[in-house]
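To fix ideas, we close by showing one paired sequence and structure record:
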Amino acid sequence: MMLLPTILAFGFAFLYVPILSMVVYSFNASRLVTVWDAAHSPTLKWYGQLLQNRQILDAAVLSLKIAIMNATGAVILGTMAGFALARFGQFRGRALLGGLTTAPLVLPEIITGLSLLLLFVAMEQLIGWPRGRGVTTITIAHVSFSLSYVAVIVQARLIGFDESLEEAALDLGARPATVFRRITLPLIAPALLSGWLLSFTLSWDDVVISQFVAGPGSSTLPMVIFSKVRLGVSPDVNALATLMVSLVAVGVVASALFVQSRERRRAREMRMALAT
C-alpha cells in the first residue's frame, strides 16, 4: 500500500528539490553557490546586484517583449490552424496542413534553428527583409514552433466541443461571426489561455533556436544566462532563476484560478438555463 505514495514522493522530490535548493542558495551570503555560509545570516544582496546588472535587465526586457509578441501571434495562427483541422472536414491539403503544423513538435531544435537561419539569409538576399538578425527574426522563429502547440490544444478542445450550442444560435438568427465571438470564443478561452501561457514559456526558455537567429545586441535572457553559466555560476544567477520560477508559478496559479472561475460560471449558467 505504501509503494505508490513512496514512488510519487520520490518523483516529486527528484523534480523539485533541486529547484528548492536553488531558491535557498539565492539567499546565501557566500560567493560560492554550492557552499552555505553559516557564519552570516541569509541575505538579499544578490538580488540587489541582479537589479543593478544592466546586461541582465536589458535581456529580460527583450525576452519579455519577444515572448508576448510570440504568444499573441502563436495563439492567432495556431487557433486558425486548429479550427481548420477540427471543423473543415476532409478538405484538399488537410493531411499536408496537419503534417506541417505538427512537424515542429518532433523536429530537433538545432534543425529548426539552422533551417530558419538559412531562410532568413535567403529572404534578405532576395527581398531585403528581414534586414539582419534581431528581434524580428527571433519572434518569427519562436512563432513558427509555438503555433504548433496552440494548434494541438485548440484542436483537442474543439473536438470535444458541443456544436449544438452554435447550431441553436444560428437557428435563432445569429450570424456566423457573432456565433464565433459570443459562443465559440468564450468556450474555448481556457484552451487559448493555456496555449498563450505555453507559448510564452517556450519563447522565454528557448536557447538553441535563438542562438541561430539572433544578432548583435539581441541576446535574450536565456542566452545571457547560458553564457554566464559557461564561465562559472555566480550567486546572482540563483537569484535570477528564483525570480523566473516565481514568475512562472504566479502565471500557473493565475491560469488555474481563471479556468476554475470560468468552469464555475459555465456550470452556474447551465443550471440557470435548465431551471428556466
About this structure: Residues 57-275 form a domain with the MetI-like fold fold (CATH 1.10.3720.10). Residues 83 and 155 are 6 Å apart (CA to CA).
